[in-house]
Amino acid sequence: VQLLESGGGLVQPGGSLRLSCAASGFTFSSYAMSWVRQAPGKGLEWVSAISGDGGGTSYADSVKGRFTIFTDNSKNTVYLQMNSLRAADTAVYYCAKAWSSSYYYFDFWGQGTLVTVSS
Amino acid sequence: EIVMTQSPATLSVSPGERATLSCRASQSISSNLAWYQQKPGQAPRLLIYGASTRATGIPARFSGSGSGTEFTLTISSLQSEDFAVYYCQQYNNWPLTFGQGTKVEIK
Fold first, then answer.
1. A26 touches chain B (CB under 8 A)
2. Starting from the edge strand earliest in sequence, which strands make up the sheet with A17-24, in order?
3. C-alpha to C-alpha distance for A85 and A78, rounded to whole angstroms
4. Which of A106, A107, A111, A113 to substitute to test the interface with B, most B CBs within 10 Å?
5. Per DSSP, what are the bridge partners of residue A77?
6. A95, A33 in Cβ contact below 8 A?
7. Which of A37, B53, B80, B103 falls between 20 and 30 A from B20, CA-CA?
8. Chain A closest CA to B54's CA: distance in Å?
9. Distances (CA, A) of A46 to A41, B88, B91, B95
């Protein structure tokens, strides 16, 4: 299993960014996926999740209405569209594979991509 | 939201000694608890799920116990590679929540 994130970078407050996570080594459409972030020097914070069939999504209150998770099963890729970014969104964003759509613990993680929101 | 509280924040242990980490949930989560290990500059690694089942490839010196609201991760004999930060995570309710972490450092 490999998860490779991309799309991080420096963005101004109020701006947008789209993160991508390309997956390989498993049947992508059969597993739920999630994004978890970690602010500099801080702990882990769950951000969003999507079921294997893409029909179910969940968001942390801190990002609800601003972030959107979606998948492209033809590309084995999960995305996180981030709008109206704030300084508090600055973090390393990890893509993680859930054990199943019923049990959202994470057996594989990507290496992370850094998002910095600053003027 | 279920709040996960880990204690202690930092645990100083000598190599070869036993380490006991605690995680408490603000309400019952049955056995829907996972433990992760994170080393500096690395992604987290799954250690335990279902409160007590070791993930693939995890050494037997790691063990988990508990149910309901009280959980424990025990490292029976600390090796040099075990010094890291450990997080618990509940997956019983949305939103998913993590504890704030316990740093296990060399005494």
1. no
2. A2-6, A17-24, A77-82, A67-72
3. 19
4. A106
5. A22, A72
6. yes
7. A37
8. 11
9. 16, 12, 11, 8
Q: What is the DSSP string of A29-97?
A: GGS-EEEEEE-TT--EEEEEEE-TTS--EEE-TTTTTTEEEEEETTTTEEEEEE-S--GGG-EEEEEEE
Candidates B30, B96, B98, partner chain A, best to mutate (most A CBs within 10 A): B96
- Digit-by-digit pLDDT tens for chain A (119 residues) are 999 999 999 999 999 999 999 999 999 999 999 999 999 999 999 999 999 888 899 999 999 999 999 999 999 999 999 999 999 999 999 999 999 888 899 999 999 999 999 99
- Preceding amide of B95 cis, omega within 30: yes
Min distance B31 CA to chain A CA atoms (Å): 11
